[in-house]
Amino acid sequence: MVVPAEHALHEAIQVSPLILSDDVKRQKIENRVAKMRFSAATARKIQDVFISEMNKGIHQQPSSLQMENTYIPELLDGTEEGLYLALDLGGTNFRVVLLELAHGAPIREEVKRYYIGSELRVGSAIPLFDHLAESVSDFVISQGLQDVELPLGFTFSFPMIQHSLDVGVLVTWTKTFNCPDAVNKDAVRLLREALDRRGDTKVKVLAVLNDTTGTLVQGSTLDHNTAVGLILGTGSNACYLERADRVEHWETERHGEREVIIDIEWGAFGDNGVLDFIKTDFDRENDANSLIVNSFTFEKYIAGKYLGEVVRVILAKLTKERLLFVGDSTSDSLLTSGNLTTDLVSHIEQDSLDGGDSNTKEILAKFGIIPDEDDIRIVQYVCEVASNRAALLVSICLASLIDRIDKEQVTIAVDGSLYKHHPRLEGWMKQYISLLCTPGRKFKLIHAEDGSGKGAALVSAIAHRLKKRLQ
Ligand code: ADP
Ligand code: MG
């Protein structure tokens, strides 16, 4: 017997029906993408796997979820005052941020972007970190603050192992960076040494973090119930406030902490095979076309770097199987990996919402394709199916977090351009989370922009307060 809640979930996760002039073709296409669509039972199975992987990770058993301790044991308490810095490395822009706080809330922000030439991104780490330090000095001196002791939060968006709030050992470089001699070294130490070599400011590096953690802390200034930070941008990850007594990996001395932020690192969820039951041939090809194969399984289902590619792979396969663009000559451009970016998926999804087709036609024209009516419907259907799967997967994990967190009301702070610009993700997520978490649990989704900048400065303020207390 299907329980009513499962029935509601089943109903909610249906996508709009595909309506084509050719019913046989419709059936074939629906069958072809059927594995992208989850039943309520599959959604529950994914949820069980996620919960099990979280429990294993937090107990330091083998798991695809790292469940990293960030060593941030509390949020802002309203007493933080003064000036704090952030250095944001590894996102789309490299920036220095100054934040002025009064009663724990930002009252002024200054931001400056700096450029990192490609010659600094590869090679020895010393010139790179000297450049980071030079940028910090330039900014601090331009603000006339060279003689002021300034706490700094370092957003270092690369895989690292944290031994304490201010020790983060680089596991491997990613993106466009590769300075091998920094691997296995503490990024904070490298930055401190570079600042010391200059000796022209009084900047104190107090914390190292990633953008997800910064987003949670930034969100907490907007809504004090914030207990989850979520990134849906180029990549995807989440963190949450965990009960300290549940956390086994804790290298520093404990001081009666009640909570701590755990960085789940969910981009790698499934890298050990636990999600293989949802993998489609489209996902296998998306993975094969990616830079690092067999890793970041979950991220490849949901994040901005990949969602467009999932859509492109499906469209390319349907074309080759002569179910799409049949009257048209095959578009080489559409058959090339990386050519359909996620912003285009958003634009096509907007058409579906509006019941229109102008964006879809315009985008296909750029690929040299003149579609017929059925082609347009199929392209829109595929964008909806892929987007909807991403929304459902993210919601499954977020619902599990809400259930795990012992609070009346849980606010989820979200940052990232995919979440911000996709016209349907937010609406689907609200609906799915409420059906997937324990009935009656209260939650909210809020936009918390710039966790990697503002959020990092706020973390340095927390670190500064903790340090004073322990002295
Ligand atoms: P980052 O994650 O690098 O810090 P963002 O949060 O701005 O930066 O995310 C950038 C990513 O968001 C892009 O790589 C792209 O995949 C995705 N993106 C950008 N614009 C849109 C859009 N209009 N709709 C959906 N996704 C988008
Ligand atoms: Mg970002």
TrEMBL record:
Cellular component terms per the entry's GO annotation: cytosol; mitochondrion
Organism annotation: Trachymyrmex cornetzi
Catalytic reactions of this protein: a D-hexose + ATP = a D-hexose 6-phosphate + ADP + H(+); D-fructose + ATP = D-fructose 6-phosphate + ADP + H(+); D-glucose + ATP = D-glucose 6-phosphate + ADP + H(+)
Signal peptide annotation: none
Name this polypeptide is given: Phosphotransferase
Lineage start: Eukaryota, Metazoa, Ecdysozoa, Arthropoda, Hexapoda
Catalytic class of the enzyme: transferase
The keyword S-adenosyl-L-methionine belongs to this UniProt entry's keyword annotation: no
Keywords attached to this entry: ATP-binding, Glycolysis, Kinase, Nucleotide-binding, Transferase
Superkingdom of the organism of origin: Eukaryota
GO molecular function: ATP binding; D-glucose binding; fructokinase activity; glucokinase activity
Annotated Hexokinase C-terminal domain residues: 228-461
Domain Hexokinase N-terminal as annotated: residue spans: 29-219
Pathway note: Carbohydrate degradation; glycolysis; D-glyceraldehyde 3-phosphate and glycerone phosphate from D-glucose: step 1/4; Carbohydrate metabolism; hexose metabolism
Keyword Nucleotide-binding: yes
Stated family: Belongs to the hexokinase family.
An individual GO BP term: intracellular glucose homeostasis
EC numbers on record: 2.7.1.-
